[in-house]
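Assemble and predict.
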Amino acid sequence: MSSEIISQTMRTDRLPHIWCPGCGHGILMRAIAVAIEDLKLDKDKVCIVSGIGCSSRASGYMDFNTLHTTHGRALAFATGVKFANPDLHVIVVTGDGDASAIGGNHLIHACRRNIDITTIVFNNNIYGMTGGQFSPTTPKGDRGTTAPFGNIDKAFDICSLAKGAGATYVARSTAYHANKMIEYIKTGINHKGFSLIEGISSCPTYYGRKNKKGGAVDLLNHLKDTFVDIKVKDKLSPEKLENKMFMGEFHHSVEPEYTAEYDKIIELFSTGGEE
Amino acid sequence: MKKELRLSGSGGQGLILAGIILAEAAINQGLNAIQSQSYGPEARGGASKAEVIIGDEEIFFPKVRKPNILLALSQKAFDQYIHDLDSKSIIVVDESIQTNDKIEVDMIYKLPILKTASEKIGKSMVANIVALGVLTQLIPELEKQSVLDAILQRVPQGTESLNTTAFEEGIQLIKL
Amino acid sequence: MKKNIKLLQGNEACVHGAIYAGMNFFAGYPITPSTEIAEVSSELLPKNKGKFIQMEDEIAGMATTIGAAVAGAKAMTATSGPGFSLKQENIGYACITEIPCVIVNVQRHGPSTGLPTSPGQGDYMQAKWGTHGDHPVIALSPTTVREVFELTVKAFNFSEKYRTPVILLMDEVVGHLREKIEIPEAGELEIVPRKLPKVAPSEYKAYEFTEDLVPPMANFGTGYRYNITGLVHDETGFPTNSTKEAAKLLDRLMAKINNNLDDILIYEEGFAQEAETLFIAFGGIVRSVKEAVATLREQGYNVGYFAPKTVWPFPEQRMQEISKNKKNIFVAEMNLGQMIEPVKLAVEDKNIVKGVNKANGEIISPEEIIESFMEVVKCPVK
Amino acid sequence: MDKKLVIKPEWCKGCGICVAFCPKKVLGLENGKIAILDGDSCIKCGQCELRCPDYAIYLKEV
């Protein structure tokens, strides 16, 4: 037997999943499952769309309508699903490379449209599936198999990117802060508009090893020590903020949602017949 | 019966719309018609041509090769398309265009199409509709009323009387 | 009843045909010379309670079309050469996941940006081989505005019937041509609905081996929670690394089309069986060929034509049958020689097959076709 | 309602996260798989279930 949550939301015959020992993705996938279960969504009305990469294998394990698509394009597929059937709760699971490199254009435009899709980015700062190449979120100076001398690219802040592009709910948590992750996903699903929740994951196999940051436990402890809630930022001294990164809810606003706006056009202009 | 027409000028003069109206008038009368165009990448100002073929049988090849009638509203268009004509062709040009006396065609009509639109009617954009009045006179197979009906179908709402006047003025420009 | 006769542009007729076939979703990105299809869709779809979305790029246009089809829509996208190249990966996705949708490619001159406003037929091979891997392709190519309407309806029907993306391979000649069309009455043309599952969700296998090799498709949100993936999958829809399953899947994908060629292959011919010389063309060039054939026959030459409307799969068997007594076969296309390849494959004596090619952005004229014929028969026009 | 710690060793990949984050040192690895070493000390805090990436340990309501 597996836990109630897991047997309710996962295709347990597909488990164990393919992720490496200690991979943070499993923790983040559970957070999505718990959020859906807590919200008591109708399982038949939940659609999980993913792209390609380690993160994107999540869709196959989750017992909903699942669409595992092409690299970078999950949001474009999801836009089709949601726009064609706005009754569905559409949740996109994507990775840092999938969302912000090959799929960067779709990400900013999905944000801009404010279509009611909840996007969960499993950010492990590396291309795991292809063996550890640096990604758009690999910190400057860190190593990957294609950055053997240290990465000179500046890293994307996916949350700032999403906020700047027009997403109306933006939050970040980590695989260590799993309860916060669950809370933000629930808020995101309930939010009428485009929501993005970045979950900082951990990749012991490639990122941790390549950058000498230790194994699964060390990486989780690193998340615990590094990430500070944005709410307490102003209360901490500059010394305490040294080398810290921020998590929490960065943006939450109410703006017209895409499918609802289009429904208004149909209501105003549909004639029932051609012309 | 098969009649090939080429309506040429510069982009933005509404010649494609004029071509569509002629073709539509023809099919409303039960004839066959096809309309095609070629254009450059510019939205406005480049050379533009619209072609119409009207016939009572099926029309296969859609492009005009030897126009029965060439309408040219710009010098560039006139110079470019004059070579495709033969002794049976009819040319309709705006009076502002320099024509060569040696051209061997059936007839050249040099008419104040642009001036009629801009001065007499006061809207230079209706030059295409003035031209349609002229062309209707030169195509006996087309009924005046069916061309006018097609014009009124295609022009923006509220401009019906303006365009009707332009069409009538075009008819007046040519006395056969 | 008053006949609904209109002057319509090919691109406009495509949208009217699509709506007639039940299209209720369009996603795309503007590109010349297909743009009118997006423009007319953006107006007619909401009027008909359908949906139109302009995406951020061509790739997204294809992805969103597939996503909508998964959610139950009859979805279409339209593009031209460069955009068709960009869509290829997701077209392959729709092939292996068996998602019905229609992709219109109004071909223009190429490669690359080429002559954007001028016609070409250089995407014939790309329609078949554009995406990586082996997969079946149905591509239809209309010649007249009426045919644009009818073949758009057929494209939707084939996509639903065989659960496959269908390509409507138009060209600028037909896309921008305005012509008289009698719009079919409702019910006049057959409309094929999606084959939905009849079993309970617990019994449903998304990629089951049915007798007709086309598994019923459950729309997302209807109680059948299943998995769709571009990875090789077994009958349940879940990924597998089994070489046996991979072979089984690809064989089925090919067979579901190849077993139904009688239904899928559409072509037009004139004097094709008896003629000494045969002209072959598709799309806009068929118009030139038909005029050339009419002119040559008036002059006493025994010529005919064969015009595939289903350009993929190529009607190989019919080509073979009519090629037996031929002295010459001319393949006229606005490219440097693409459809000539499957023609040669079908014809026993390859030496009689000659190309009439033009790839300068201009339509091949009937005179040019007649000229090629005269060069070969070495006989002046009477 | 009481809770009981349940393990599912066949899903365990032996990453050691649950062992490290258990505040009462209840857990350990045996042959690379999750094992309950000292069940009596368990305070049912659920840290192991929250953090296990492989769903190989959970609290069951009994």
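Chains B and D do not touch (no CB pair under 8 Å).
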